[in-house]
Amino acid sequence: MTSFRKRTVQKPIRGTRTSPHTGQVITSSGNPSLDLILGGGLPIGSICLIEEDRFMTHAKVLVKYFLAEGLLSKQELFLGSLDDSPAEMLRRLPKPLTDEEIEQEQRQEQEQQADKNGLRIAFRYNDLPLVNSEQATAKIGHHFNLMEHMDAMMLSYGNAITWNDKKTNELTNPGWLLDPIESMPYSYAQAVGSKADSEQSPPDAAAPEAAAVASPEAAVVAFPEAAAVASPEAAAAAGETEATPMEQSDGQKTASNINNNNNNNMDNSTANNTTSTTGTTTTTTPTASPSTGKPQFFYNARYDRLLNYIQLQLNDPIFEPGANMQEKNLCRVCLTSLGSPLWYDDHFAEDLLKFLTILRGSVRSYTAVCFITMPMHLIAKYDSSLVPKIRQLVDYAIELESFAGSERETHPAFKEYSGLLHLHKMTAINTLAVHMPETTDLAFKLRRKKFVIEKLHLPPDLQESTEQTAKGADVLPMPNCGVNSNVSMDF
Amino acid sequence: MATSLLLACGLNEQKLPGFVHISEESNVDGSFLISCILGQRLRISNAGTLLVCLQNHYQHYFNAGMRLGYNSNIFLGKTLNVIDVLSDMARLGLTSKWLRSPDGLTLTEQLVKDIREQLEKNYPNRSSYTILIDNLSILINLGASKQQVQQFCLDLADLAKAHDNLTVITKLSNSDIHPLTDNNVAKLGNVRIQVLRLKSGVFRDVDGKLLIERVLDDEGSYSCEQTRKEVLYKVNDRNVKIYNPGEIGVKV
């Protein structure tokens, strides 16, 4: 008997690589400078929390990067939000840069720096390389231009499911929450039916149906909770319609995903029920089962619904971690403004913690990464003890402190930056030690085309002036009883 | 790899105290302690271990263990048993028994029931048995009240008293937010390890501080006598280093 064993090398998932630091599989967050801080990217199975700035400007930019990266890497997306329109958010994703554009941009930046730094203090410093406080680019991921939106055709190639809980607000039946298929909400179950029909019917017949679903109105009405992006072939089959490719894909992808997700779980009665629908979402009968009287886990039913959708999406075999299959893929779960006032009720804190705990388990157990933004300044006002509890349930907690509207906006020390970035938590997932960045004194700036995270440094002229004032203060007599302060007395 | 850490905590012996509680402050990660203790228990032949995964799933402990130089998969199903609550919740969603309480049992009661079952099955064949619970704050997050968590720990402490060579090790995160629960649980045992952050800020060479409190229950001493030891720790890629206070500092 030979000891020879055939070596089975697992095919890496699209848009991922193994980190040389930790040996874990990581994926890009979409922003190269954020990737560098995280140690190359987000580890698979991790949850990254972005604590929103007061005006929610910069957190949204990072969300766009995260989604755009997933779309470009042909990964599956799940976008949930109560505050924003997820479909609109997907439409406004930044445009990826080509290699030539990246090179050109880097060259321009180098030239600009050379112009700025042409004059040195002494000629011997000319041999030293230019100090670039901007973090180096990551090896995975793409570069994006925030000034332009992603091409509609490019969007049509992506797979995305969105959730905004519009239709289900009217549902008072908690029973469906515990049984993912039987008690699927109206529009969701219809989507299953329409997809099943379109699969059974010939392509010619499926095309007009797809086109019908593709109209923006239909997408909003029929898929208020779970709109999705379809395959380009289906979009092409639908023919030229008024709808954008993004909208065309909405219904179809929902259907395909649900079909994939639920094939294992679907019982016969439900399957029959859903496939008996006529295919167009507007004419089918509701398939949601009546209340089964099962207890509801969350006080706020929205969490049940959202969690159900996420778990339906993640239960797809392509996200099974151990599966050795061709179509293995990564799911990017993105939840924006979770815990905003729209989520408030009497049991807000309990529900949010429960939700995050179960979400953590789900994301860890599948090939997925999660990106959450939260208005932590509002949550802190609601209950200050909630902040550390939430941070404990995520793997990365990053706070964006914007200067907008604060005194620091006009402060000369921070004139180069848009805000400060605080790293509150970094957890070691599937390893012992966590990667720590070179420095934790970080600031960000929102340039025209990109969002950059840099090491915080004071401008040279300010350093001199502070030194001068300090010297001046030493010389000047202090009238305020020995307190070293330049502030005028109140009287 | 982690011998010095366990030595400092007094957990490197074959026979451990009945109940050990690990308190973890907010913004501090003390999961390395569980990995170190798990490795030490698995290395002892015929010592059984039950790992209750609430904060991380089993794969995390396996990977962390590999970094520390042991392969927990070899022991899985033999001397190591796992109750992976997190994975169950992920697989079964809201229909999971941990979230639905099908028998009318609360989450903590269900957990005690499962632990008892595991204990009855495995304890008679093992020279010693260790139950590791990581971590109690997840139970609170999942809706268990403070009383329920306390009762859960009390039940476990009773188990430890009823069985020889049985050790229960619990961990509680955000101990500064749940001081009452933390203190009450710590009172059930003789050893308490507090994982604290550095008050002065972040330091590259040191991750945090361990405060080890041990009640002396030796013959002839009073139960109010206790020792306190403070050590600094640094979690590296493949080991955990321990420093005495003042041993390491900023070099000018």
Automatic annotation (TrEMBL), chain A:
GO terms for biological process: tRNA wobble uridine modification. This is Elongator complex protein 4. The keyword RNA-binding does not apply. Keywords: Cytoplasm, Nucleus, tRNA processing. It is found in: Cytoplasm; Nucleus. Residues 16-28 have a biased composition (Polar residues). It comes from Drosophila navojoa (Fruit fly). Residues 233-245, 254-292 have a biased composition (Low complexity). GO terms for cellular component: cytoplasm; elongator holoenzyme complex; transcription elongation factor complex. Pathway: tRNA modification; 5-methoxycarbonylmethyl-2-thiouridine-tRNA biosynthesis. Its main location: cytoplasm. InterPro entries: Elongator_complex_protein_4, P-loop_NTPase. Belongs to the ELP4 family. CDD domains: Elp4 (cd19494). Residues 1-28, 233-294 are annotated as: Disordered.
From TrEMBL, chain B:
It comes from Drosophila navojoa (Fruit fly). GO terms for biological process: tRNA wobble uridine modification. PANTHER family: ELONGATOR COMPLEX PROTEIN 6. This is Elongator complex protein 6. It comes from the Eukaryota. One of its GO terms (cellular component) is elongator holoenzyme complex. Pathway: tRNA modification; 5-methoxycarbonylmethyl-2-thiouridine-tRNA biosynthesis. Belongs to the ELP6 family.
